[in-house]
């Protein structure tokens, strides 16, 4: 066994450049397959997480997609406001399990400030587990108190007890509100949702800050409603799914109000992402094919030299079985190392995609394990390619040493 390993070491040392080229090509091919698969799986899980929390969202009339994205992902400009009387009406409705109002429109260094109630953080039913937990501090209790998401605390280095002023609008270029100071009372544990990039405060805080302001172009401004009697959206959890269609029809008949099913819009988004996923899979397949062809050409280019090396070793008395064993071990090592390093490189690439998604799109892709079958699939592909490339060497062992030496001459 030791002599076989030494033989492999001598073989690799004598072909460092070609072995390094093959390894890089196969590692990149494997990493591309793993990264595309992991990213698409993570995206699918992220959509499921965001769409499965509330069955319905109520807001101002306009784009249903915009209402969904602004309320759940907070990546779109809110449509406007609806009267708070709609919230009170839904909270009294026997068909509604929970109606949670949110108020949007302000931010802190680009992170959205969400006005809401304590119901946002509590389980939908008493017997269910807690939906949110605090890393430190306590829940908000009065206007100005703020519970911040994990990413906000991490990126802005905020701690319990810190104070700040919010800015008007969803970016940090808006006018700063000095009417009321926010104080950090708690920091949330990571959720993997848009809540990690949000700051939560009582809805009364938003009302107090905007007491003498009107939202330009908002429904509340046009109708004459004061901002302190309004909500941007209402997150609805119904007692039974069968209640949802009728409730939606009633809400849609209200003036300036619409109700949407977020699951439908997330499905539309997923359909768009699936098209992109198919294109990515095709492009990655082409890239993998080109990488494997490069490996094939590199191996076939050195077959003549390898054949001469094995012929000389056999002439010097090296047993045929040992040479075949070293060749098979070389194939296994190349395939295994390429798969392993490709997998590690893909995890690094996926981590980079997660960070980019958080910064550029305000979307947190959940971490997902790679499918074991994909690892085996990738290893099998590389093993087959290498075996096909080395098969002429294996067939060459059927010839006698005398015939092989004559061919060399």
From TrEMBL:
Per UniProt, subcellular location reads as: Cell membrane
Q: InterPro entries in the record, alphabetically? A: ABC-4/HrtB_transporter, ABC3_permease_C, MacB_PCD
- State whether keyword Nucleus applies: no
Q: How does it sit in the membrane?
A: Multi-pass membrane protein
Pfam families for this protein? FtsX, MacB_PCD
Q: What does this protein do?
A: Part of the ABC transporter complex hrt involved in hemin import. Responsible for the translocation of the substrate across the membrane.
Q: What protein does this entry describe? A: Putative hemin transport system permease protein HrtB
């Amino acid at each position: 066994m030791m002599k076989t390993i030494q033989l492999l070491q001598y073989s690799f040392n004598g072909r460092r450049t070609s072995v390094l080229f093959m390894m890089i090509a196969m590692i990149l091919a494997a990493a591309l397959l793993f990264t595309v698969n992991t990213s698409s799986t993570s995206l699918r899980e992220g959509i499921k997480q965001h769409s499965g929390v509330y069955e319905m969202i109520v807001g101002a009339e306009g784009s249903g997609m915009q209402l969904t994205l602004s309320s759940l992902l907070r990546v779109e400009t809110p449509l406007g406001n609806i009267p708070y009387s709609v919230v009170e009406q839904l909270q009294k409705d026997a068909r509604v399990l929970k109606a949670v109002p949110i108020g949007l429109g302000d931010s802190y260094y680009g992170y959205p400030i969400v006005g809401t109630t304590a119901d946002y953080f509590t389980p939908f039913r008493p017997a269910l587990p807690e939906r949110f937990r605090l890393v430190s501090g306590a829940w908000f209790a009065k206007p100005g108190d703020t519970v911040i998401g994990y990413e906000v605390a991490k990126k802005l280095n905020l701690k319990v007890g810190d104070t700040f002023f919010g800015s008007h609008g969803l970016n940090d270029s808006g006018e700063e509100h000095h009417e009321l100071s926010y104080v950090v009372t708690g920091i949330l544990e990571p959720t993997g949702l848009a809540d990690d990039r949000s700051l939560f405060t009582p809805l009364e805080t938003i009302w107090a800050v905007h007491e003498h302001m009107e939202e330009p172009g908002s429904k509340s401004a046009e109708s004459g409603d004061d901002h302190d009697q309004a909500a941007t959206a209402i997150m609805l959890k119904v007692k039974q799914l069968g209640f949802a269609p009728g409730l939606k029809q009633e809400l849609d008949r209200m003036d300036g109000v619409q109700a949407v099913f977020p699951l439908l819009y997330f499905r539309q988004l997923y359909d768009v992402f699936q098209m992109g996923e198919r294109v990515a899979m095709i492009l990655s397949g082409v890239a993998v094919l080109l990488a494997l062809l490069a490996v094939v050409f590199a191996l076939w280019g050195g077959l003549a030299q390898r054949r001469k090396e094995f012929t000389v070793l056999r002439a010097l008395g090296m047993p045929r079985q040992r040479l075949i064993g070293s060749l098979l071990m070389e194939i296994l090592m190349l395939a295994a190392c390429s798969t392993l390093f490709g997998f590690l490189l893909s995890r690094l690439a996926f981590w980079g995609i997660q960070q980019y998604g958080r910064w550029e799109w305000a979307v947190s892709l959940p971490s997902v394990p790679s499918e074991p079958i994909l690892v085996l699939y990738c290893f099998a592909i590389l093993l087959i390619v290498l075996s096909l490339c080395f098969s002429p060497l294996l067939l060459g062992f059927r010839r006698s040493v005398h015939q092989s030496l004559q061919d060399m001459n």
